[in-house]
Amino acid sequence: MRITLLFGWCFLVLFWFYTHNRVQGQCPAYSPKFVVQHGYRLYGHVITWLYAEKEVLCRLKCNLEKRCLTFNYEEATRVCELNDADDEKDLQETQGFVYGDMKKKRKSEVASTSTTPPTSRPGSSSLLAGHSCKKIKDLGDSRGDGEYWIDPGNTGQPFTVYCDMTTDGGGWTLIKRSNLTFIYRYSSEFDRNDYRAISNYSDARQNILTTAIQDLRITMGFDQLRYRCRKKRINRTLHIMTINDTAGYEVLDHLLVQPTWPTACNSFERLQDDTSILARNCIKWGDYFGNREVNRWGKSSNKGRHRVYNYVIVLEPNHRLAFMSGGPHYCDDSLPFASIGDFWELYVR
Ligand SMILES: *[C@@H]1O[C@H](CO)[C@@H](O)[C@H](O)[C@H]1NC(C)=O
Ligand SMILES: *[C@@H]1O[C@H](CO)[C@@H](O)[C@H](O)[C@H]1NC(C)=O
Ligand SMILES: *[C@@H]1O[C@H](CO)[C@@H](O)[C@H](O)[C@H]1NC(C)=O
Ligand SMILES: *[C@@H]1O[C@H](CO)[C@@H](O)[C@H](O)[C@H]1NC(C)=O
């Protein structure tokens, strides 16, 4: 009697699971009408793309995405493109691609009441994430500036980051953006020693420590830092990036590994919109054990794990770059004021 009851229960639970999953369409493998064509790619209908370890995961993703009718999968790059069309006329022979048609009902035929999972984004599961903004850009799969899922350490725990895909060719991962509403008081509870905190890039309160950024450098790989800031009342933009060469790497080592206050001139480039006094006067940078205008990054008294934000550049007494949460915020000035809309950004590539 009890056993029958148990069986009944199990059956009900299984039945519920089965129907429930079927309604959501989560069993693509059982779709009898699914068609796959090797060596083909559908052009002009990609709604989103992501990385998928295997073609079957790309298919699963398409099935979960309401708008997805077909997909292209490139085995070499593991890029999975989801299409919102199945027009045969846009199908072209393309080496290395697999084209899959889910034979789903078209948009207009899908009942508006059907339950759907949230809109798919690149890397919306642990198996489906990019490596870095740079890699995504290099693969030609940028969708413009915005958030992307990455898992640089292949940990199976992807997270979102903001990618700048336009400045100087793009591929920049945002570490921190301080877009001030007020100056946050320093509190060590906002120190982050895990690079995943860059997910919270717009939280001006947090300071991602140099050690965490260096960890990201080792795991994800990057060669350059880029600083951009602007204070309205100063009306100048500071916008510079370190050069991808040994002089630039010395700056990265100084800011992220061990302070050495390296040579300023020839270590960075100005971006087009830079109008700062700092960037045009590298020879006068530095405050090195009491000596000023020594052509060096940073300030010798500032060597803690915030030095990537705090007194990054000084040209005493009137020009500085600093934006540590809780500390003074300078952008090509030395005034202890900031107003709403003033911003500071740090990117890596
Ligand atoms: C983002 O910020 C929130 C709130 O401060 C915090 O709880 C969360 O752990 C942060 N996320 C990461 C990945 O650090
Ligand atoms: C800000 O600077 C620009 C030149 O860089 C100038 O054209 C503009 O008038 C300035 N705005 C204010 C409010 O001073
Ligand atoms: C900063 O925030 C303001 C207001 O929220 C917004 O208009 C502006 O675009 C932001 N600036 C940046 C660089 O994010
Ligand atoms: C920096 O230079 C190296 C070697 O030339 C190159 O492989 C790498 O892609 C460059 N990095 C960036 C961010 O451009």
UniProtKB/TrEMBL annotation:
Residues 27-104 form the Apple domain. Coiled coil: none annotated. Keywords: Calcium, Disulfide bond, Lectin, Metal-binding, Signal. Residues 124-177 form the Fibrinogen C-terminal domain. Residues 112-126 have a biased composition (Low complexity). One of its GO terms (molecular function) is metal ion binding. The keyword Cell inner membrane does not apply. One of its GO terms (cellular component) is extracellular space. Residues 102-129 are annotated as: Disordered. This is Fibrinogen C-terminal domain-containing protein. It comes from Exaiptasia diaphana (Tropical sea anemone). The lineage of its organism: Eukaryota, Metazoa, Cnidaria, Anthozoa, Hexacorallia.
